[in-house]
Specification:
alpha+beta; 30 strands; globular
């Protein structure tokens, strides 16, 4: 069947939103209302779905009926799950999206909620992602029974900094949840730009001119995503192209909630109340609501924060305190958006020899420093943007937008213009994704980009063995930054031996700084920031042709699929064998 709608899905770290537009008319962007459990035996429709999964006790399942029929045996997502994060944090999965791109933990292993008691059935980050999407699919199908989501044009957004493995896992979860096989992946900062384009219509060409550079700063619940987009003129037409994306920075609204929780916990300590670990997690979630209210321009001057006790007399042991608007602003504005120089960099603390295998949150919480570092790393593009576009729920606060804008202005000879308004910052990505899908069919403006990074394989060089010294490694570029969807590139001039018949460890690297590298560029030395190693894979490659050799010479062909997925193929030069190498941590089939 022919698709009737373009559907944009923003699968956010903290909230998920669905927007859509009919394809057979002028763009008419709307938001999908999402039914969800909000309380015991209570179901309501809300404009967003909080990205939390609550794993109920056996006795609760009957009273937590699903909005779409059936029980809650597989968990409850949405408002009720978010509220339970403050009362039963050991039963709530939060930040599944961040876990999905966390290389140090198996993304497909059932380990969440992290460090919860053994009696609680756990899920993987990928399973949790699938459950969120299943809920969104069911919500759509209930509202549009005559146009099931599997038959529509769907655009699902991911962070620009998502590695190929995280994109691949997201795609698997999406298809399993009921999205069409042909759905598209779109980077969230680009979706924010499409939202601005949708609002501007043809007027956007009046705001940008050739060689202008747009900095997109997207600070969501769990991540900070940075992207540069440039305007250029070709055949008299103004075009947009993505120049660069930043690294995956686990720094966002969740960190701000934790900062408030740490402050409030200190106040509780002064009152003689020492919180146990789960009360501390509960306090973290309780501070989320307080932050949003206190940072709003029309918010209250003070907000009461309470934490339930852990004893038999919960009411008697519940503790409360107040935090003021000024205290919240001082903590968040000065802690996360301090004024800094353009040459400042995030501080790196010395790594501890023993570390908990939790999420690798940034040690330096200064978002302004991360922005400064990102801009300075773009050697080929202008270091100073001419325009800025804010995105993400964090920037609903005027105080935070103003501080970030003032800091960038201090770095610039000419003050950059701020595009868009804060009216729809928390839904801009979903609306922009829906508009992108609509514009693909109607010939609207497109942001050219391709791959966000250059990709490399690590090749062990030949040489004499030295005890205790690993053999030198060189990196070979197999895909340049900006490689377009639907294209492929062959590395024909370089033959490398691939081990077959026994397990071998294959290493991969990526770079957002080496934009000039071409396919076949070899690098012998690099800095830690210049090339970042992604997770290696250990796999036993088998050859259909038995040559008796443990190494077969191969050349490489890299492909970027129409869905934006990266693939690397190894082609034997002596047999008909070929293997697809995926940049992920799972064993190849």
């Amino acid at each position: 069947m022919t698709a009737r709608y373009s559907v944009g899905i923003d699968l956010g770290t903290t909230n998920s939103v669905v927007a859509y537009s009919p394809l057979d008319s002028k763009t008419d962007l709307r938001r999908l209302m999402i039914p969800q459990v909000v309380g015991t035996d209570q179901i309501e429709s809300r404009a967003s779905l909080p990205s939390f999964l609550y794993l109920p006790r056996e006795g609760e399942i009957a009273s937590l009926r699903s909005p779409f029929g059936g029980d809650a045996a597989n968990g409850v997502v949405g408002v009720y799950a978010r509220d339970q994060a403050a009362e039963n944090p050991q039963r709530v999965v939060a930040a599944a999206k961040s876990w999905l791109c966390h290389e140090s933990a198996a993304r497909t292993d059932a380990v969440l909620p992290w460090q919860s008691p053994p009696e609680i059935t756990k899920v993987s980050a990928q399973q949790c992602t699938q459950r969120f999407l299943e809920h969104l699919v069911a919500a759509w199908n209930q509202a549009h029974a005559d146009a099931p989501l599997a038959e529509q044009q769907v655009v699902l957004t991911v962070p620009a900094s998502f590695a190929p493995a995280a994109r691949d896992l997201t795609r698997e979860a999406a298809v399993a949840a009921g999205l069409p096989e042909t759905f598209l992946l779109l980077e969230e900062p680009q979706a924010a730009v499409y939202h601005w384009l949708a609002n501007e219509g043809e007027r956007w060409r009046e705001s940008l001119k050739p060689n202008d550079v747009l900095l997109v700063i997207d600070v969501g619940g769990g991540t900070t995503d940075l992207t540069l987009v440039t305007a250029s003129e070709q055949d008299g037409e103004l075009n947009l192209q993505r120049l660069a994306v930043g690294n995956h920075v686990l720094l966002g609204g969740d960190n701000m909630d934790l900062a408030l929780a740490h402050f409030v916990s200190g106040r509780f300590s002064q009152q003689g109340h020492q919180l146990d670990p789960w009360q501390s997690v509960s306090l973290w979630h309780a501070c989320r609501d307080a932050k949003e209210k206190l940072l709003a321009d029309d918010g209250p001057e003070t907000q009461t924060i309470s934490v339930l006790g852990r004893g038999s007399s919960l009411i008697a042991s519940t503790v409360s305190t107040e935090i003021s608007k000024q205290e919240a602003r001082d903590l968040v504005v000065e802690g996360f958006f301090p004024k800094c120089a353009a040459a400042d960099r995030p501080e790196r603390q010395a790594a501890s020899g023993f570390q908990d295998i939790g999420l690798p949150y940034e040690s330096d919480a200064a978002i302004t420093k991360h922005v400064a570092a990102f801009l300075s790393n773009q050697s080929e593009s202008p270091s100073q943007p001419t325009h800025v576009l804010f995105n993400g729920g964090v920037f609903r606060s005027e105080a935070l937008r103003r501080r970030m804008q003032e800091t960038i202005e201090d770095w610039s000879e000419q003050k950059p213009s701020v595009l868009g308004s804060p009216a729809e910052l928390d839904v801009a990505v979903a609306i922009g994704a829906a508009f992108y899908g609509w514009s693909k069919q109607h010939g609207g403006v497109r942001i050219r980009g391709g791959t966000a990074r250059s990709y490399y394989i690590g090749i062990e060089t030949a040489g004499l063995a030295i005890p205790g010294v690993p053999r030198p490694l060189r990196a070979l570029c197999v895909a340049p930054q900006g490689m377009e969807e639907g294209s492929e590139a062959a590395v024909l001039d370089e033959q490398v031996g691939v081990m077959v018949g026994r397990p071998a460890r294959f290493r991969f690297f990526a770079s957002s700084m080496r934009g000039d590298d071409k396919v076949g560029t070899a690098i012998d030395r690099w800095s830690e920031d210049e090339l970042v190693e992604t997770e290696p894979i250990t796999v036993c490659l088998t050859a259909e042709t038995d040559t008796g050799e443990s190494f077969l010479p191969v050349t490489f062909v890299s492909r970027v699929t129409e869905l934006g997925m990266f693939e690397l193929w190894c082609h034997s030069t002596t047999t008909d064998d070929k293997w697809k190498m995926e940049f992920n941590s799972r064993e190849s089939e």
